[in-house]
Amino acid sequence: MIQNLDRVGRNAVFILVLVAAVVLVCVGAGTVVAQSAPTEEFSKTYGGAGDDWVLSVAETSDSGFAIAGRKDGDVLLIKTDSDGNEEFSKTYGGDDARSVVETSDGGFAIAGLTSGGAWLVKTDSNGNVEFNKTYGNGTAESVIETSDGGFAIAGQSVGAEVSDAWLIKTDSKGNVEFNETYGGGVEDTALSLVEASDGGFALAGRTESFASGGEFDKDAWLIKTDSNGNAQFNKTYGGGDRDVANSVVETSDGGFALAGNTKSFGGIDEDAWLIKTDSNSNVQFNRTYGGDDGNLANSVIETSDGGFAIAGSTEASGVRNFDALLVKTDSNGNEQFNQTYGGGNNDGAWSVVETSDGGFAIAGDTQSFGARGRDAWLLKLSGNESEDGGGDRQGLPGFTVVAAVLAILTAAVVAVRRRTE
User: Fold this and answer.
1) CB-count exposure of residue 267 (10 Å: 0-12, 13-18, 19+)
2) Counting CB atoms within 10 angstroms of each CB, which of 4, 77, 281, 373 has the fewest?
3) 110-145 CB burial, b ≥16 within 10 A, e <16
4) Which residues neighbour 283 within 8 Å (Cβ) at sequence distance 6 or greater?
5) Of 392, 394, 381, nearest to 38 (Cα)?
């Protein structure tokens, strides 16, 4: 009789252990951590009576910020300290700056537009010009410093009848090493690029030449090249309406994340859009963010926790004004927070970086704050609390379930021991 009880007890413990393992796996797979939106540390505007804006932000090595855009019709570069206080503000002629990076020598590289076409300006750490180069008829939308100390620029090469996506690779002095275009017979453009871990490049933008829909349809577009600009693959994403990828990053798993806007999927109007692919451009997930009003995603980064942050703008419900938008997701694109910033007029975010303190910096423009008209705008947001420091867990109540299972297992083991004594 006692042996039978022992056998029953051991079987019961085995079954409970099996159930506990299944529950723990389900908890791990099903729990989504919802973070509270970060708090605003500062909001600074830069500009005068005219229209000024910035389209790009970089955190600098001294924990300050560099923002680039347009002031009174000229290319603009502003350097701030870590609190957003202006250290210098420089204009360089031209028309508009679309992208800025801090370079390895402590200076800055700015890509933009001038009457001569695509434009690259290299400055020292104080904003003084070291060189400026133009590259023919077209636009420079994004610039990076490459691993060999040169630069790569993505944009649009404009011809008499067609426009192509454009990749320019230069040496450290801005001299062209190669110049490649990608496209078909209609309008195509590259809006963002990264240097990939294999030494090649990934460009994101939009294509009309290779769109999957009918006339006037545009698709989001990802092009991967080798280190010499030779295309390795060319992939489109979209439906029967207008879709675009405004920003691309290579992810820590070797794939890519693209952020943009879609009218083919999501709500009634445009929605902010995040696409995650593997290293061969195959879609792993495809998420939209927004409701029936317009939502735009202009910039994406992979965050230190493996998730993503997207900056853009959103139309206030029932009001034809836009607010700046920041969406934070987990690694699977599940929304953790969605926060807007702005006032009673049009405001927008064009670029986001994760800062060294775990927060975010957002650059854009505002008509709600600052001087009259449109002003350049820099927002600094705090970091979020860690998962065990305040994040709300949604889905299965993970820690409660684990505690209950452990309590049951302990009771079962104690009961079996008593029977065998």
Assistant:
1) middle
2) 4
3) bbbbbeebbbbbbbebebeeeebbbbeebbbbbbbb
4) 237, 275, 276, 277
5) 381
- Tokens coding 135: 């590259």
Instruction: Kindly state the tokens that stand for 407.
Output: 């309590």
Sole residue written with tokens 């910096």: 361
Alpha-carbon torsion, ordered 340, 342, 347, 351, to 10 deg: -50
With vertex at residue 110, the alpha carbon angle to CA 64 and CA 352, rounded to the nearest 5 degrees, is: 50
Q: What is the DSSP string of 275-316?
A: EEE-TTS-EEEEEEE--SS-EEEEEEEE-TTS-EEEEEEEEP
Cα–Cα dist 185/162, whole Å: 6
DSSP line for 112-174: EEETTEEEEEEE-TTS-EEEEEE-SSEEEEEEEE-TTS-EEEEEEEE-SS-EEEEEEEE-TTS
Rounded to whole angstroms, how far apart are CA atoms 374 and 368?
Answer: 8
- Residue recorded with tokens 């076409």: 117
∠ Cα 330 314 144 (to 5°): 65
pTM: 0.84
DSSP secondary structure letters along 173-206: TS-EEEEEEE--SSBEEEEEEEE-TTS-EEEEEE
DSSP label of 224: E
In eight-state DSSP terms, residue 420 is: H
H or E segment to which residue 245 belongs: strand 243-250
User: ∠ CA 232-118-193 to the nearest 5 degrees?
Assistant: 35
Spatial strand order of the sheet with 163-170 comes to 138-145, 151-158, 163-170, 176-182
100's CB contacts (< 8 A; 6+ apart) are 56, 57, 58, 66, 67, 68, 77, 108, 109, 110, 111, 143
Render pLDDT for 131-179 as a digit per residue (tens, 0 to 9): 999 999 999 999 999 999 999 999 999 987 889 999 999 999 999 999 9
Residues 50-100 pLDDT 10s? 889 999 999 999 999 999 999 988 999 999 999 999 999 999 998 899 999
What separation in angstroms does the CA of 264 have from each of 72, 153, 222? 36, 29, 17
